[in-house]
Each structure stands twice: as structure tokens, then as C-alpha cells.
Amino acid sequence: VCLTCCSRDVMVKVDQICHKNSIKFFTGDVFGYHGYMFADLGEHEFVEEKAKVAKASPGVGDGPDAKKIKLDSETTMVKKRVVFCQLKEALAVDWSGEKASAALKRTTPDYFLLQ
Length: 115
Description:
The protein is of the alpha+beta class. It has helices spanning 8-20, 87-91, 98-106, 109-114, and strands at residues 2-4, 25-31, 34-40, 43-53, 73-83. The strands form 2 sheets. Strands 1-2-3 form a 3-stranded mixed beta sheet. It starts with a strand and ends with a helix. GO terms for molecular function: ubiquitin-like modifier activating enzyme activity. InterPro entries: Ubiquitin-activating_enz. This is SAE1 enzyme. It comes from Nyctibius bracteatus.
């Protein structure tokens, strides 16, 4: 479900219904130069490709031919799982706590503008 141009109450209500029924939810809006986007994907599983680089044996890298040696690289697939929070929880963050002070440094000022 995708919502735009809705009131905060409508977005929270629709997100609660979607979350309860395991339906992915997106909302967002733009106000001139400022905008926001929120996604509640519930429990989202995905696969990420990780590269493993094999090192060359010692002694092979001596001399002018060392630059021509290519390293073999392998990739492995790593399964990951992320649990998204609901919109109601994201809007109810207590910014006065100690945990919030670290997150506050990473939070764009636009977040508070849109609040």
C-alpha cells in the first residue's frame, strides 16, 4: 500500500492495518524542498552478495610482474532479515533519553521540521 498527501492519523491507521495483515506499507510527501518517506515492510528477508578476496601467495608479488597478478575473488550469498517498525512507533521516539542522543546526531533536521 502506498499513501501520499494524507493526514498523520490516516497514515498511522492504514499502517496498523497493513502491519497486522503482513502487507508492505509506504508513505511519503513533498513540501517544496523538503519531503519524507516511510516504509514498513514488516519482516523483510533478502539476500546480500558478499565478496571474498583470495590473497596471493607470498613471494609471487616480487618484481615488476607483481602488478600483473590478478587475485581470484569469490562471492557468497548471505541471507539477512530486517524487522521494520510501525509508523506509530517511529513517530513516538523519546528524544530526551541517552539512547536517542546517538540517533539524534544521525537524524536530519528535516525530520523535526516535518513533525
